[in-house]
Amino acid sequence: MTRSAPTAPSSPTPPPPEAVGPLMRSLSVLRELAVGGGRQPVGDLVRITGLARSTVDRVLSTLARLGYVRIEGRDAVLAPRLLELGNAYLAASELPDRLGPLADRLADELDESVSLAVPDGDGVRFVHQATRRRAMSLAFRIGDLLPAERGAPGALFADRWDAADWQRWRLRRAADPTDAGFPAVPPRPADDRPLAHRVPDTSTPDTSTRGISTRDTEAQDASAADFEARVAAARTAGWSLDDQLIEPGLVAVAMPVRDASGRTVCALSVVSHTSRLSAAELPDAVLPRLRETVSAMEYALSAPQDGPPATTASDAAPGPAHPTHAGWMRASKQELGPEFVESLARGLITLTAFGAGRAELPLTAVAEATGLARATARRALITLEHLGYIATDGKLFRLTPKVLELGFAHLSGLTLPAVAQPHLATLVERVHDSASMAILSGDDIQYVARVPTVRIMSVNITLGTRFPAYPTSMGRVLLAGLSPAELSARLALTDLRPLTRHTVTDPDRLIALVDQVRADGYALVDEELEEGLRSLAVPVHDRTGRVVSAVNVSTHAGRCSPDEARETLLPALRATAAAIEADLHIAGRYARIPAL
User: Fold this and answer.
1) 137 pLDDT band (50/70/90 cuts)?
2) DSSP helix, strand, coil percent of the chain (3-state; round to 5)
């Protein structure tokens, strides 16, 4: 059963008269799709949102036009391009860019997971993760939201709460005692003692999903008192401890990071497991380096940046065709007719007006950046402010961490094969031959994604299959991504055996062929791996320009000549690689995209 997103414990504030109703309804569809793990049957979205099927279809059609959603059969699926909304907030905050490298360095030095988190209402939202790969390690993602009381950073942020904030927190706790509205954390019973310290009460019936009895009001009161005591302790100590508040075994220490004005802008946490360090041992082990890193972070926040913000047109521009002008909106409306919800497109484009060097903008600047009329931009901003995605002091507008709830956590966990798979499927539909993606693994290529086609004679390869790099098209493309010195050294250590009568095994000739591949931007290999097999491959680059993988189309050599293969397959292959690279450019802005 899907857990719902956090909801207000009391009646929501009525929208202002200027709020755009279709935009609010449309964003509810996107939000539920994100909460549902990034894939939901369209029928379920209709049921969950309570909107008419025609309305949901129009919303999804608009999101697909923007490149934010794909429709696969009966399902709506979040697409990597949606990450540009969260990227806009992260770039505007400057926290991952300025502080992320320091957090990564601390994780390396301590060999523990390190997180940066910001306050989001009465919750805590992650904006950077530097995790260790272990059997028992931190599994949270950028964008995940935790209740303030379940973790070390929350006690630091709650120190700034006023009476109204505490009242909202108590109302939320009463309305959602098991944290069902926070999908990132394990559900808890209403008995809110730390999970590792809780034992079953066999004297009363088991009413919880975790096998532990509920103590209702007394437990809630004890929980509130415990959190308030932890807030007071953190205020005195200057740091906060999480002793298995999220789940048994997970412990953490957090310190606040303040800007030049003394305002706490985020919290830096070191997370470990009791199999490595107990809650009593963790502070002594990490606090000295944690304090040093916080000091370095606070200096980084106060120091002026060298040069202009690191941003590009694609980081800043919304939509698949950079529709920053009214012309794109008109063309979309003409093409899709009533299936295009203009207010939704305008609202999402408004979010992308912000970014690096554009943390706070007046209305006029938002209108100029989006190409929207001033009145239209104003209504979009008012609606987004009502929904909590934008905050304002009356003159300047800024994005809030809540923007990250729009699918960022799910999409930030994508792997390279997951990004490539839908594009490979489109390629196969276009060329009617099997398509694959591979990475370089030692002297071999390893298949990480594949979409087969149905033919009497087809190339049958499974994921994980490895072939030598030197006689394959994808291998030569990947070898071309190496420096000349690396290439020579690798070939010198490779057993260059003839696999067919066509296999090139002379090192000098192979180097010349790879040099030509590097110049041409593609490789065509004829019957060197297997008699009768011809393949054509092109490279895939990440946002830094590094070759990270290759995509190819394999076919039987008797179907067409090499020149015909180039003419018919190469344009489609290059278009596919470009589409994958566009997704990687956005997805890799703040998230790491693993190859497997």
Assistant:
1) low
2) 45, 20, 40
